[in-house]
Amino acid sequence: MSEPSCSVAHRLLLRCATGAQVREAHASLMVTGELVSSPVAAAVFLHNTLIRAYARTGGAAHLEAILVYRHLLRSALPPDTHTFPFLLKASAAALPGSAIAAAQGGAAHAQIVRLGFSGQLHATNALIHFYSLAGDLPAARRLLETSATTDVVSFNTLITGYCRSGNSAAARKLFDEMPQRNGISWTAMISGHVHCGEEREALSLFSAMQSSGVPPMAATLVSVLSACAQLGALEQGRWVHRHLRVSGGGAATINVFLGTALIDMYAKCGEVDAAVAVFEAMPERNLLSWTTLIGGLAVHGRGTAALRLFEQMETSGVAPDDVAFVAALSACSHAGLLDDGRRIFAAMRRRYGVEPKLEHYGCLVDLLARGGRLTEAMAAVEEMPVSPDGRIWSALMAGCRFHGDAKLAERVAERLVALEPDNGGVYVLLANVYGAAGRHGEAVRVRGAMRRRCLGKAPGWSSVEVGGEVHQFTAGGGSHPAAAAARAKWAAVERRLREEEGYVPGREEVLVEVEEEEKDAAVGGHSEKIAMGFAMLRSGEGERMRIMKNLRVCGDCHRATKLVSKVFRREIVVRDRTRFHIFRDGRCSCGDYW
DNA sequence: TTAGGGTTAG
């Protein structure tokens, strides 16, 4: 007996990987007339399969899935229980910016009720999914609470919905209360914490998952690695890598997601060579894997290597997207590659049709401004099609400060203050510009204005990983139990730097109105130095010290860290807000350009 | 050989 033609078409459609392929298969079904002239069950089946195929491929194809559904209705064919999950999935995926998709979801809900499908588990779950993505979490919650049948998937879907909308607390409550959990429940909650910037919660939930005996899935480890990357938790990240190597299948278990997550983790933990090794061992790479490594090399200041990789990616037939261009441009900006940066920026639109966004302008302005091309940088800002935000002006401002252009800095500061009047950091920047230009009276005036408005700068902190544990310090040491010991250790270290290298704590970074005597103490209290003191107290002699901070390294800390690496023969890895500094033998990998 | 949930870069 020969196979029914709808089965052949079904298999064909599910093999389609792109919207264009689905469109072609769709067209051939229209030509043969199979879509409408088959027996009713087969015709509905084919419509469902088409909707599913469009839903899978993404982009504009999501909307075409909706068109197929409307074609089904126009052909007077009855949607069945299989139709709605596919339709809702496509509608949910098409949601951003599509009023049609939003309306279709609501209409499908009404139709489900009318046809008596509302008791069906799959319809319920698809609706929860749709409302979650539509941002209507109360509607999704109502479905979970009032539906006759729900299962673990219903809960998992709502947990994900809460997390995507930023409400991890509601998600966690649901997770804690749900009657049973599977691996996906744990994974959804762990990745949800990461999504909401709660990496520590994510890691502690992962250890709870392990205690509960549920084995981690690949997707779980991807999220765990992402948490490690954000936290700079190298030891835990390495543990995941080892775990992958020993548990079943060896390197083959490292899929493209895990490989990319490992690259990111190593790069963000200061081990860029390990990131390169993972990349080279990957059997399969995609745009994200390339981009991650390019960005990793960029933050390590390896601009030339990053650009070489970018070219290799192009030659291998992978077209860069907007994110890849951010990575390439930031590589130029961290390494001061002025001409390459200009060239790549121009090629974005011309060769690849990628419209430059704020981030791209940010890199360009940063590059030009720090390269001393302040006029060109200002011109770039003025010709931007989108209005510049605080980050763009800040990049320009940093350039002004670096090159001592107090006049332009004032103009830029006016724009910045207008944009972000409550951001104390802006005033600090301006005061520093005046300080660098020797106009101390003006600097004091700006500080005064800042105080009158009761504005503060975001408090700085530094953290250091010792023995797999992360310790955090604010300026002066903060509330860490070992703050006093760390401060004392730093004082001893600094004495040796003075004796052997003639180190004098720099003054340009200090609040100008602070008395002379207190200046050294204020600089000595920078969180980075306390963290370094703590690391020297607690870590082994030859060990690399790993410090992470939320602000940029200041000039004085940079100088002091270089000297520590020389005098104490220690390698020090510092991850600051924008890049890595690797200190060795009195030198820094940034070449003093940051 | 027809359904639903989780996963990486900036």
UniProtKB/TrEMBL annotation:
PROSITE patterns for this protein: PPR
A Pfam family the protein falls into: PPR
Gene Ontology terms for molecular function: RNA binding; zinc ion binding
InterPro entries reported for this sequence: DYW_dom, E_motif, PPR_At4g14850-like_plant, PPR_rpt, TPR-like_helical_dom_sf
Gene3D superfamilies: Tetratricopeptide repeat domain
UniProt name for this protein: DYW domain-containing protein
Annotated ranges, domain DYW: 502-594
